[in-house]
């Protein structure tokens, strides 16, 4: 089934214990991007297996294109062609792709031109 390419999106996951740590955690990633106004109506958070708190904080950049959700007559958009663009910890790659693949956007009000960026934060676990 063909999906219509509606726009390109780049989602930035900045998984940091504190906003001030963001730069230190993400030094190797290009984070000079504006944050998008488009927000998913369904947003699933990435989860690692238990005992993996050693992988926090971290940064992951995932990109995707928004495509029409089958059967929605173009009213709903889902991420397609997911790709990890950069990561400070490879343990997050698959959990992030799995989570983002479940996100849902409503097509009304989405800016289709250019890329969209979202900063997503998960704090480090504390004892």
From TrEMBL:
Superkingdom, taxonomy of origin: Bacteria
Keyword flag Signal: yes
Signal peptide, first to last residue: 1-19
Keywords noted in UniProt: Signal
Name of the protein in question: Uncharacterized protein
UniProt organism field: Microbulbifer okhotskensis
């Amino acid at each position: 089934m063909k999906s219509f390419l509606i726009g390109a999106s780049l989602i930035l996951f900045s998984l940091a214990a504190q906003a001030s740590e963001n730069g230190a955690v993400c030094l190797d990633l290009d984070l000079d991007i504006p944050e998008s106004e488009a927000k998913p109506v369904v947003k699933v958070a990435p989860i690692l297996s238990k005992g993996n708190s050693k992988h926090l904080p971290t940064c992951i950049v995932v990109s995707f294109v928004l495509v029409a959700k089958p059967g929605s007559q173009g009213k709903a958009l889902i991420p397609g062609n997911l790709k990890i663009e950069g990561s400070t910890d490879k343990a997050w790659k698959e959990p992030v792709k799995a989570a983002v693949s479940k996100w849902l956007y409503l097509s009304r009000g989405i800016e289709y031109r250019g890329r969209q960026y979202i900063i997503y934060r998960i704090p480090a676990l504390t004892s």
